[in-house]
Every structure is written in structure tokens, then in C-alpha cells.
Amino acid sequence: MCGIVGYIGKRQASAILVEGLSKLEYRGYDSAGVAIIDNNSIDVMKCKGRLANLEEKLKETPIEGTIGIGHTRWATHGEPSDLNSHPHSNEDGTISVVHNGIIENYIHLREWLTSKGYKFKSETDTEVIPHLVDYFYNGDLLDAVMKAVGKMEGSYAIGVICNSDPDKIVAVRKDSPMIVGLGENEFFIASDIPAVLNHTRDVYLLNDKEFVVLTKDGVKLFTEEKEEIRRDIYHVTWNADAAEKGGYEDFMLKEIHEQPKAIKDTMTSRIMPGKPITLDEIKITREELENINKIYVVACGTAYHAGIVGKYVIEKLSRIPVEVDIASEFRYRNPIIDKNTLMIVISQSGETADTLAALREAKNHGARVIAVTNVVGSSVSREADDVLYTWAGPEIAVASTKAYETQLVAMYIIALFFAENKKTLSKEELEDLKKEMLLLPEKAEECLKNKEIIQRYAAQTYTHKDMFFLGRGLDYAVAMEGSLKLKEISYIHSEAYAGGELKHGPIALIEKGTVVVALATQDELFEKMVSNVKEVTTRGAHVLGVTFEGNESIEKTVDSAIYLPRINPFFSPLLSVIPLQLFSYYVAVQKGCDVDKPRNLAKSVTVE
Ligand code: AGP
């Protein structure tokens, strides 16, 4: 999705804006631009393509000035082009705007503004904003932005500059992320914290419909009624390096390797041997939990796959029925919700539009909502009743790895917490599971040692056009995630099937040489899975098996095997996904794909 950066201070804005935008590249974009005030006039530079193109243009024709806004655009309305890139300006170029989100009533506003004599140059929804601000401008930029926003429907994070009010930036957000960075005599707006971390660790987290005015003297926050708001400073404790590659080829590889730590961090102070599970952020009482008769787990993409594992583990441990839904489907299917329904939404970014909409739908019907998210202060975290943060740290690669891993940890913690409170497990059973879970970081570390064999298998298979992932039970849930990862970053078509389902149709696709990745980590399903593998090998498939150490008999059936260190198979998803992530990664590298920024994908999908 789009990225926004704004700067006001004593330094030259251009370099700071471009550097800030580079930290937002992970959000996905197809064009970039800046608008800077110099000598009471606004200079705009924007172009299609990578940020490097913009940097090149700025080198050729530098723009001076210490106040500016910058943007990386991910096209929604209008193709990626120089003209559709942000910032957008009013007709005489005295007002410039950057915007993230979608103005849903833009056609109506465009017609209305056209009837007032305004002319449009681009195909974007955003272009209505500078014209609206122009229409309402009467010497007070904040006032004009407030009135313009009053006309707009949809989602937006906006930064505005105006050469008649040359010493300020006005910004506002609704359903799109925005933070304010507080430096020494310099201030920033940005879509995400990494964009300002080289300059400050102190930020304000903005809520929906809060307006900000940044001047060289400071920052003021206002309600939509223009009442000043007092906001506590949020001090960022994680390191700026956490958002850099740290010696790895790509963010994705780095993030795969960070998983043992991410698992540990997410369990820290929550799971301790001999102590009750501690979830300070979840306020649900034992009595409320007793009354819960149904849980919906709702999410998109990888987070949805974590939800499927969540269903298995919550149902198994707490005996509460769980339904898992794709967020974009949930909101339109009139789900049965009442005050005894609990919703768990899972979202790395906490800003996914469909997930947020599903959360709101459930709340409107009286359900209680627990958010599992990786981003502190994200929309999802603020709108849910309870929050369980995954401590994966910033995830930059578009393809999620460590966030998924910590979402799994969160689902296991929630399942154990429910079981403990509902007393569906004995103390001994609970204690055994906790002890086993605490072994996960070191076991995950061991899984990373399998790299060479996976790399070899990737080198043998990367030219294939189709691949299949098979599993039963928890393995099927992980197979879905393995298949998504492969599609996302290597562009190879792949499908995940439940082992037993194959013969009901998809087996028709298996032919000589078809690549199949088969997971067989569930003891009670092992033999059945081996039979499913035989069904494909007899038809010529080339199979990579993933199972636990001790199951070497699988070698009689598969072509290559990856062995996971032994752990209670109940926790196998946290380990078995690691070789699948590495497999996708090495296949994509062999194919020469841009692993961290796969085509057509955005990290944070803030539109429906
Ligand atoms: C992950 O690899 C994907 N790029 C994508 O499916 C992602 O998980 C999905 O868009 C949900 O994002 P969220 O967790 O930020 O809500």
C-alpha cells in the first residue's frame, strides 16, 4: 500500500523524504514523488517505478526547501504512471497532497468540483483532495483540510502543504495508518515508524479523524471539532537495525532466521513453568469465557492460515467450537453473532481493510474481539476489546514468515489460556504442554540447519510450472501456508490438498515428474499419509517428505526427506513451516525473483 512521509525542520527535506520512503518500500509501490516548499512556491517531482528513479531525477534537478511531503503509490484508481503518482496538486500548484487509502465518493466529488470549474489531470481518486482544500481555503489550512475531509467518504491518511501557509504541514488519518515523529526542532509524519527511526524514537500514534498541524516550533493534535488533544509520547524501544537486512541477502531470509527469537519473545513472560499463563492484555473474565459458545477466527492470507492451526488447537484444548473465516468473506455472509460469540482477528499489520471491517461487523453485533497483531497502536489493536501482540519485530519482506510463526505461538497461547481457565485440561497436562512449548526456540534453530538439502531440492525443481503440497490435520494447515509462500515469491502455480482429498479429483493432475511436498508429522496419521504419498509416486510424482527424526522409514516412499527435531507433534506446525519457507525462498532465488518485493503484492492491504 502507499507510503507517506512528511518533514518540517531546518534540514533539506528532499533527502530526508527519500530516505524515509525507502524504509516504507516494504509496503509495496509502483511510483514515488515529493513536493517541497521553497521560497513560497511548491516544487513537485514524481515518477513511475522504483524510488531509485525519483532519486535519479532529484540528482539531475535538485529541489531545495526544508518543508515537504513524499509518497510511494500502490495503484488503485488509475494505472501506475507519472501523472497518477502523488503528490497531487490544485490547478495553480499552490496546494499539494499525499494520500493513502481510497476516497469512495470521489466520482461524486469530481463531478461537483468540475461543476465549480475545477479541472482534473489524473485518473486518481486522490486528486479531488487538493481541489477540495483549494475550494475551502480561506487563509487557514487546517480549517480548509477539515472542511475537505468533511466531504470525503472512505479511508485516508493525508499530508497537505500550501504555499500561502508555507510554514506548516497539516495531516489527518481515518482507517489508514499514520504516526507523527518528534525530533529536535524537526517533525515528521509517516505511514510507519521505520520511516522516522533514523531521526527520532519519540512518536505520537494518531487515532482516526485526528488532525495534526506540524510547524517548525512543534506539533499540535486536534479533534474534528478543532479541540486540542493531549497525547502521550510513545517511545520506540526496538532498534533501527531491526528494520535493516543485517548481513542477509534479503529481508525474507533474515526474517526466517529470526524465528527462534521471535517465538521466544512472543512466549516471554506469558508462558512460565509452574505459573499460570499471563496475558495482561486480555481482560476477558473466567465467567465471560464460560459463556462463550462459539469462536470465529478471521483473517486474510497467511494470517488466515495461522487461524486454521488456531482452530485445531483451540478446539482440542478448550473444547469451544471454532470457525475460521477469510475476512473478505465473513463480512458479507451475514454470520451468526451474538454477545456470547468471541472473535479472534489475526493481522500482522493490524491495518488490513477486510480484517478491520470484519472486526467492526462483529463488534456491531455485540461480540467480544481479541486482536492478534504485530503492530503496536495499529487500527486493529485499538478497536479490539483485547490485544495479544506478537513480538516478531518489524516484518519487511512482503511474504510473511516470522509474523506467521508468532501468530501460531499466539494461537497456542490463547488455546492454553482458555484450557487453563475453563479447566478442560488437568494441571499436569497443561504443565507438560507448556514445558514442550518452551523448547520451540531451540528446535526452530535446529530446523534452520536443514538449509543445504532444501537448497539442493530447490535447485532440482525450480523450473517446474506446478507443485503440490499435501498433509493431514495440522499438516494440511501448514501445507496451505507452504503453497501460498511458493506462489507469492516464485510465481510457480501450486495447490495444497488434504492427503485424503487427493483421490477425489486433483490426482488427475499428477504425472511423471510432478513435484509434491508431503508433510507427515502427525503420528496417528503417519501411515495414512504414507499411503497418500504412494498414490502419487506410483503416478510418477517426485516427492519431498517432511517428517520427524525417527520416521526414516519414509525414505522407502519419498525421493528426498527433511527431518524435524522431535517435539510433541501437537506443536509441529511451528517447525514444519520452516523448511517450506526455505524451499520457497531458494526456488525464488534460483528463478531470479525479487524475493522481498514480489510482483503485484503489497505488504499491508489497506483497501477492500
Ligand atoms: C503474507 O505472505 C501475505 N503477503 C498476505 O497473505 C498477508 O498475510 C495478508 O495480506 C494479511 O496481512 P495482515 O496479517 O497484515 O493482516
Describe this structure in words.
The chain is of the alpha/beta class and 608 residues long. Strand 16 (294-299), helix 9 (301-318) and strand 17 form a beta-alpha-beta unit. Helix 9 packs parallel to helix 13 (402-422) and helix 9 packs antiparallel against helix 17. The protein is globular, with a radius of gyration of 25 Å. An 8-stranded antiparallel β-sheet has the order 3-2-4-1-10-9-11-15, covered by helices on one side. Strands 5-6-7-8-12-13-14 form a 7-stranded antiparallel β-sheet. The protein is built from 19 helices and 25 strands. It binds 2-deoxy-2-amino glucitol-6-phosphate. 2-deoxy-2-amino glucitol-6-phosphate binds at residues 300-303, 347-349, 352, 355, 398-400, 488, 601, 604-605.
Task: Count up the helices.
Answer: 19
For the sheet with most strands, the description reads: 8 strands, antiparallel
> Strands of the biggest beta sheet: in what spatial order?
3-2-4-1-10-9-11-15
Q: List the ligand species.
A: 2-deoxy-2-amino glucitol-6-phosphate
Which percent band covers the strand fraction? 15-25%
SS elements, strand count: 25
Shape: globular
| Structure class | alpha/beta
Distance between the termini: 12 Å
Radius of gyration: 25 Å
Helix content: 25-40%
Low-pLDDT parts are none
